[in-house]
Specification:
Blueprint lengths: L16 H4 L11 H20 L3 H19 L8 H8 L2 H28 L5 H13 L5 E2 L2 E2 L8 E2 L1 H8 L6 E5 L3 H6 L7 E3 L11 H7 L2 H8 L6 E5 L12 H11 L9 E4 L2 H8 L36 H6 L10 H14 L2 H34 L7 H28 L1
Parallel strand pairs: 3-7, 4-5, 4-6, 6-7
Antiparallel strand pairs: 1-2
Helix pairs in contact: 2-3, 3-5, 7-12, 15-16
Length: about 425
């Protein structure tokens, strides 16, 4: 079996981060097929480095691949070309094997870096960083029982990169509290010994540290009690950035620890900026099942629904109540009585009488129609006379008036016919 190649890329595994985090600035604007081909070449190169036992280059290549996969998943064409991407880059089982390789590479590199630092007379890479900061900015921490307290103790938030360095610094004593739901925590979480899940369903108004301790499962109570002895307590949820919103789980947990927990100092509490989503994006090899996707965030539009004033049904007058009000007088249309009586009398007529009336009306209507035609013909002939005879104007007006009367009579016949 061949030995790993000598370390040549950095002094600590954090040095490799600057190399695999660098992606082209325009990578997000490129076509999905081009990005997939780049990822495919990266897989081939990383596999060659892994076979040749160049652990640093293999680690850098695989981590750069993970960042490239995140870019591919956010591409606008990913949903439409998902099958093509799978054919080019492999299935989930292929990526699980890559995650296993990353875990082995990281463990091996950390051991080798520590061993090289020990041989050179350096205690840890973190000490080099602290000395460098101290030379530039003054002392970064105070000694307490021989332990150097990092400068981040007084900070309210830490980034994913800072937390990763703290996890790998054996001198830092801390407890990480993950307040995501139990389902999400079990599916994917940090690979860290002192990690406790404080489920969000416990983080409601009125909870105290003691109540949380009783509500946690037995295996989590021991970890929860470590908050009293650890130098730092890191809080994180899915993706909170900056100051947490009031009444959110991480806000309530922070409030409980600061105001209702006598066993912990509020200066020890720090929040992870960007939450677990930021950490798994930067360091997937340090997480269990990093491919697990966070739940879809639905924008709650009904936050202020309780502010809507709804009418009280008891204040709405019903019809029965309106009749009982004093001074109420119902309106009666007495003209409808005549129409009702006429309709009733008409319906009493025998069918034969109705048919006789229809025939009479039709005869009158035909005779009236003939008169209309004759009168209109006479009127047209009069209009054609040039020049007009004396008295023609009066005759024309008389004929027009007669036509109007005949047409009105015709409309009456039609109405009577359909009314019978």
């Amino acid at each position: 079996m061949s030995y790993p190649k000598q370390l040549h890329m950095g002094k600590h595994i954090d040095d490799l981060e600057e190399m695999y985090m660098k992606l082209p600035a325009d990578i997000k604007d490129r076509e999905l097929d081009i990005i997939c081909k780049s990822a495919q070449k990266l897989i081939e190169q990383s596999e060659r480095h892994y076979i040749n036992r160049d652990e640093e280059m293999a680690y850098i290549g695989y981590m750069k691949l993970m960042n490239l996969v995140q870019v591919i998943r956010k591409n606008k064409d990913y949903g439409r070309k998902k099958e093509t991407v799978t054919k080019l880059l492999g299935t989930q089982s292929d990526f699980n094997r890559i995650f296993d390789k990353l875990k082995k590479l990281k463990t091996s590199l950390e051991i080798r870096y520590e061993e090289r630092a020990r041989l050179k007379g350096l205690k840890t890479f973190a000490k080099d960083v602290d000395l460098e900061r101290e030379s530039k900015n003054g002392p970064t921490g105070a000694k307490d029982g021989g332990m150097i307290m990092p400068a981040s103790v007084q900070k309210q938030t830490v980034t994913a990169m800072e937390l990763h360095g703290m996890i790998n610094d054996c001198r830092i004593s801390m407890l990480i509290m993950d307040c995501r739901p139990v389902k999400d925590f079990d599916a994917s979480h940090l690979r860290y010994s002192y990690l406790v899940n404080v489920p969000e369903h416990l983080l409601v108004a009125g909870m105290t540290a003691g109540k949380i301790n009783h509500a946690l499962p037995p295996e989590s109570r021991t970890l929860w009690s470590n908050r009293m002895v650890k130098d730092q307590v890191i809080l994180m949820d899915w993706n909170t950035t900056g100051v947490p919103v009031k009444d959110t789980p991480i806000y309530i947990l922070n409030y409980i620890l600061c105001h209702y927990d006598q066993d912990i100092e509020d200066t020890k509490i720090i929040r992870l900026d960007g939450g677990y989503e930021s950490f798994v994006l930067h360091y997937p090899a340090s997480c269990l099942n990093p491919s697990y996707r966070p739940p879809m965030v639905v924008d709650a539009m009904g936050d202020n629904i309780d502010d809507i004033e709804y009418p009280n049904i008891s204040d709405i007058p019903m019809k029965e109540e309106s009749f009982t009000k004093p001074g109420f007088k119902p309106t009666i249309d007495r003209n409808s009585k005549v129409a009702a009586v006429s309709l009733y009398e008409a319906r009493k007529k025998p069918l034969e009488d109705i048919l006789v009336e229809h025939e009479q009306i039709l005869d009158k209507s035909k005779q009236n129609a003939l008169e209309i035609i004759n009168t209109e013909t006479e009127l047209k002939n009069l209009e054609k006379q040039q020049p007009l005879e004396p008295g023609a104007d009066e005759t024309q007006e008389s004929l027009l008036f007669e036509v109007m009367q005949l047409k009105d009579r015709q409309r009456d016949y039609v109405r009577i016919f359909f009314r019978c």
